[in-house]
Amino acid sequence: MELSVIGRHLEQLGDNTSTGFAFQCLPIPGDVEVLRVTVGGREELPLFVSISDDQILCISYLWDESQVNPGLRQGMLEAMLDMNIPMPLSAFARLDDWYVVFGALSRHASLADIEHELVVLSDNCLEVIEDMVEFLL
User: Fold this and answer.
1) pLDDT per residue over 27-57, tens digit each?
2) Least enclosed by CB within 10 Å: which of 15, 61, 68, 122?
3) For the residues 80-105, what does the mean pLDDT come to?
């Protein structure tokens, strides 16, 4: 699977999407090629897709360390651990100072599976932010 194929597919879905969402895709060149995917109506939470030898990785940046209430940080981390298993197709991580939600698929996943995973990840991001707002400044 190539990022350009994923991007073209998502943008060409239009109203023919099984998820009900339109997508905008922007390739980001670099040492590791990344596709920035915006789910319609959720522009503030773009998803970043990359492909390795054996997986497709999808990441969304939630907030950085400066946005966490220091007195509530431990509680936030515990809440994230508790939420990790019941959150379908996604998990928490930290990249540098950023808290993220990510999901991974097989490099051989179908385009329909990729579309579905991106929407589930986007849904999970909205739910996480709603559930974690009490820990943020």
Assistant:
1) 999 999 999 999 999 999 999 999 999 999 9
2) 15
3) 95
Distance CA 46, CA 41 (A): 10
Q: How far apart are CA 27 and CA 11, in angstroms?
A: 12
CA distance 136 to 115: 30
Model pLDDT, residue 118:
97
CATH of domain 3-135: 3.30.1460.10
Residue that has been written with the tokens 């360390």 in this structure: 65
DSSP letter string, the chain: --HHHHHHHHHHHGGG-SSS--EEEEEE-SSS-EEEEEETT-TTS-EEEEE-SSEEEEEEEEEEGGGB-GGGHHHHHHHHHHHHTTSTT-EEEEETTEEEEEEEEETT--HHHHHHHHHHHHHHHHHHHHHHGGGB-
